[in-house]
Structure formats: C-alpha cells, structure tokens
Design a protein that fits this description.
Strand order of the largest sheet: 1-2-3-5-4
Number of strands: 5
Structural class: alpha+beta
Radius of gyration: 40 Å
Length: 390
C-alpha cells in the first residue's frame, strides 16, 4: 500500500505537495473563526484581523510547497517567523510550518543541514517562550522534546529511505547481473551448438562425398551399386538437412518471430547498394568478374555496406565515396575510399563495424584494414582469396 502511495506521489509531485500542506492549512482556516471573535482591544500584541491572519498564515505555509528545496523552504519560514517575533505578533497555528519544514530538512538533506535546522528551531522555541510567556525549565524542556522528536523522526525516515533505495538498487543490479549471466550462458550454449552443427554437417558431407566417389567408380561396372550409393547420398543429405534445421532453430531462439526468406545479397546487388547509398558514391569494377560462393559474396556486400555507413557517419557534409572491386589479381580486392574528414573525424566508442568486417574476411582467409588517408579521407581495404563457386 505504502509503495503504491509513493509511486503515485512521484507521478503527481505538485498535487502530492498540496495534499501534504492541506491538513495544516485546513486547521489554520478553522481557527480563523475564533480569531475573528477576539476584540482588538483584548488582543495581546498587534491585532492583525482576519485578513491579516489569513495572509500571514498563507505566507508561512506557501514555502512548504517547495518540496525539492527543503533548506530554502525552512529558511524562508524561519525568517518569516523571526520577523513575526520582532513585530510582536502572537504565534499562529501556521507557525507549526517550522516543524514541518524541519522534518523535511532532516528527511531529505545531509546531517549537517538537519542539525543546523534543529538548532535554529530550538532557538526559535526559546525566543517564543521568552517573548510571549514566562519561561520555565519545564516549559522549555517540553517544547524541546517535541521539537527533537520531530527532528529524530525525520532522521529515521531519511535512514529508512536510503536503506530502501539501497535495497532497490541492489535488487536492480542483481537482476541485471542475472540477465547478463543468462545471456552469457545462452551465448556459450549456442556456441557449443554451432560447433556441434559443424561436426554434424562435416561428417554427413564427408559421407556424401565418399558415396558420390563410389557411385562414380561403380557407375559403369556396377549400376546397382551406383544406385545404392546415390540413395545413400540422398538419405544422408536429408538427415543432414533435418539436423541442420533443428540446430539452427535452436540458434535462432530469442529472435523476432517471422522468418525472412529473401535471398541474401551478393555481388549482383552491389550496384544497387552504391546507387542507393545516402552518401554520394560510385562503383568501379576492374578485371573479369568471377563467380564466387554466396557466403563470400555476402561478406563483400556487408564490407561495402559498413564502409559506406562509416563514410556517412564520419565523413562530414559533402563527403563522396568510391567503391572499387578488383578481380584482376590472385585475390579479390575491395577498396572503399571517401574524401571526408579522415583522421579529424570523431571516433565512435561503441563501434563494432571493423570487428565485424574482420570476422567476415577472416572466415575466408583474408585481411582487412581501415585507416585515414594522408591529406584527408578514409580508406577501407579488404583482400580475400578468390574461391570459385562449386
């Protein structure tokens, strides 16, 4: 219940502040009725009248709405009360706002501020007793006990609040750590499954290759044995495909629902990528294109895509890019250059583009580098051994 009240007060801070002041304001308004019946000649000290009573009460209560500035609220109420004491105006019910403000300082501020507020309140109690009554030790002790009780209540509430905040922080940290450990465990398990997938597929493919070789040798001499080998290849291929689907399904757990059946992009889509890039770019191809495996084509496509994205993010306004694909040598050379800010461009602290490019190129025994050019600009250079598609 109290948790719901705290949550509601956080969402409606201004309304909650008004509701906190409302009980004391209601008491002051009710006591204005007997105050109006007092004769000005019978009053001790200056008589304010009902209008003055309500005005002074409002001035004393309004600083209580400064919930985010408890020290300023207490200081304002204390100064107003001191001015009231200097003017000789009798204490009003609204002067209890000093105790409310004292509790707020003890609850929300450091011990140094709360101690200072407590001493100021004690001084005010002594001055009030000395002006408007014949002070005795018992009267001062009674008022002081009440004041100290309010002060200690605020300190206890502050300690309790900090303790609960510490518990909430530790619970949130523990939950984050638990989620992180769960993700790490899931990643480790998926890595194990990926290795298992590699072993399963490699074994089945090896069996299929052996059977295919056997079928090729027996095709003329023993057609029946060749047919048996082909049937074994078909059976092994189906088993490998089923096992692969099962394991890949596990690897994709946690991804968004829905499977994208669109073919992965390759070298044939590079021209569309360059033409549709947000940074002005052009494509230049050297040598005779070679049919590469789909995985290697996808790696080249992603490298170019990441390099163009970096040119857009870090090249600055007016930057242009050139994408070069060279088939003429023993290696496929992919070079993406821009004429942007180069070394002067700010570095991204959370960028993982170069790491991803290195991973993709490393799968095919290649290398990639990314560095600013002399005189400005930036270059991404990747070299991949050309492996003809089977």
């Amino acid at each position: 219940m109290f948790g719901k009240v705290r949550a509601w007060s956080r969402r409606h801070e201004k309304l909650a502040g008004v509701l906190r002041v409302a009980p004391l304001a209601t008491l002051c308004a009710i006591l204005a009725i007997p105050y109006a019946t007092v004769s000005p000649t019978a009053a001790v000290g200056p008589y304010l009248g009902v209008a003055g009573y309500l005005a002074l009460s409002a001035v004393l209560l309004l600083p209580l709405l400064w919930r985010d500035r408890p020290v300023a609220s207490f200081a304002a109420i204390a100064l107003i009360s001191f001015g009231q004491w200097l003017a000789g105006v009798n204490p009003l019910p609204a002067n209890l706002a000093v105790l409310v403000a004292l509790w707020a300082v003890a609850y929300r501020c450091s011990f140094r501020w709360s101690l200072a507020a407590g001493l100021v309140t004690e001084l005010g109690v002594f001055l009030a007793l000395a002006r408007w009554d014949t002070p005795t030790l018992g009267m001062f002790l009674s008022a002081s006990i009440f004041t100290v009780t309010v002060w200690l209540t605020g300190l206890y509430a502050s300690t309790r609040r900090r303790y609960l905040e510490g518990l909430e922080e530790r619970a949130e940290r523990a939950e984050r750590e638990r989620d992180q450990q769960a993700r790490m465990a899931a990643a480790a398990e998926r890595a194990r499954i990926a290795r298992e997938l590699h072993d399963v597929v490699a074994h089945n493919v090896s069996v299929m290759v052996v059977q295919a070789d056997g079928a090729g040798y027996a095709l003329d001499s023993d057609p029946e044995q060749a047919r048996e080998a082909v049937r074994a290849i078909s059976k092994t291929g189906r088993a490998a495909l089923a096992e692969m689907r099962r394991l890949v399904g596990v690897l994709r757990e946690g991804e968004q629902d829905g499977t994208d059946y669109t073919p992965q992009p390759g070298l044939g889509q590079l021209e569309d990528l360059v033409r549709g890039s947000a940074v002005p770019a052009r494509l230049q191809v050297g040598g005779a294109p070679v049919e590469l495996p789909e995985g290697q084509q996808l790696a080249v496509y992603r490298i170019v895509q990441e390099a163009l994205t970096n040119a857009l993010k870090h090249g600055g306004p007016g930057a242009q890019a050139l994408v070069e694909i060279d088939y003429s040598g023993p290696e496929l050379v992919v070079r993406v250059t821009d004429d942007g800010r180069g070394a002067a461009a700010p570095r991204s602290a959370d960028g993982h583009g170069l790491i991803g490019m290195r991973e993709r190129v490393g799968m095919y025994g290649g290398a990639v580098s990314a560095e600013p050019l002399r005189g400005g600009g930036f270059e991404v250079l990747a070299r991949l051994p050309m492996v003809k598609a089977a």
